[in-house]
Amino acid sequence: MTMPTVELHLHLEGTLEPELIYALAERNGIDLPYDGIEDLRSRYSFTGLQSFLDLYYANMVVLRTEEDFADLTRAYLDRARRAGVRHAEVFLDIQAHTARGVPAAVALGGVTGVLATSEADHGITSGLIITFLRHLPAEDARTALEEVLALGFPVLGVGLCSSEVGPAAPFKDTFDLAHARGLHRVAHAGEEGPAANVREVLDVLGVERVDHGIRALEDDALVDRLVAERVPLTLCPLSNLRLQVVDSLADYPLVGMLERGLVVTVNSDDPAYFGGYVDDNVRELTRLLGLTPDQLATLARNGVEAAFVDDARRAELT
Ligand code: ADE
Ligand code: ZN
Questions:
Q1: Domain map of the chain by residue range?
Q2: Rounded distance between C-alpha atoms, residue 66 and residue 29, angstroms
Q3: Overall fold of domain 6-309
């Protein structure tokens, strides 16, 4: 079976496993408001995106030091290697840390220090995408980007995530600045929000990939455009199931999307919270949808096409 080897939609903070949350809390002397690991895990049952985000942001309290961010990144890469990942582009919600008083340099230093040696240590090439939080004022995103640029840590791109409420247009100047500085652009859209949100991030933010984008299926003309322009959609099946974006994985529209020629990829989003890493996502879909070797090979090829890598690395991954 040809498994996808590229992961393009992964929030580092969404890889915080309950065991690591408790280990970091102990190291940092933080009292958690849960009755232990099993109690925390029992809360991983969500009614929608916001109910997940509330717990996801709350658990970030344990990330305080550069070492914490490094340990988080290393734990993800260890698990991703076991999943067969050879290239990963990972998201970091920098504002969720600076808003808690953690300096951007601490978070970025910890993450980028580990990513710098990911190929040597884990056999995974990697890049960092700074994701701005859509529920915060757009001026905060601009300030965050300026700070990240001034600090000079290696960054591959920018993204937009969090609750899919309000227009994306206010983030245009931040995305324009990122583009002018040579950064790639992606955005979450069409997860809980409508197909119009996918159009908006393409037209206004100039994104090269759409994160989720599953609700683009509600707009035929948009699907035609995504196919014609080969805009990748980074799908996250277990996430969609756990956040009730879809009712069941047995009805997941992946095969229809492949047949229409959409450049879809399979990813894990926040694997610690949604019950599986990228290999688990692919295995579940394969089991429930009966994906063929050809379809799996197309998914793998799509991931390589959608990755922000140079031709030499693309050839190696192919
Ligand atoms: N941040 C982390 N996971 C997310 C998701 N699935 N959608 C939007 N923002 C997120
Ligand atoms: Zn996401």
A1: 6-309
A2: 16
A3: TIM Barrel (3.20.20)
Q: Is 269 annotated as a binding residue?
A: yes
249-275 pLDDT per residue, tens: 999 999 999 999 999 999 999 999 999
* Residue 167 Cα distances to 171, 193, 232, angstroms: 9, 11, 21
- Residue identifier of the C-alpha nearest atom 1 of ligand 1: 162
- Does residue 191 have an active-site annotation? yes
Task: Say what the ipTM of the complex is.
Answer: 0.98
Give the dihedral of Cα atoms 68, 18, 307, 239; nearest 10 deg.
Answer: -150
Helices (H), 181-292: 195-203, 220-228, 237-242, 254-259, 271-274, 278-289
Which position among 7, 191, 192, 200 bears the catalytic label?
A: 191
| Separation between Cα atoms, residue 21 and residue 62, nearest integer Å | 6
Residue 9: CB atoms within 10 A of its CB come to 31
- CA 7/CA 90 separation, integer angstroms: 8
**55: exposed, middle or buried (Cβ count in 10 Å: 0-12, 13-18, 19+):** middle
By alpha-carbon position, which residue is closest to atom 5 of ligand 1? Answer: 162
Please say if the pLDDT value at position 167 is more than 80: yes
Instruction: Give the pLDDT confidence score for residue 137 in this predicted structure.
Output: 98
157 lines ligand 1 (CB under 6 A): no
Q: Which atom of ligand 1 is nearest to the CA of 93?
A: 1
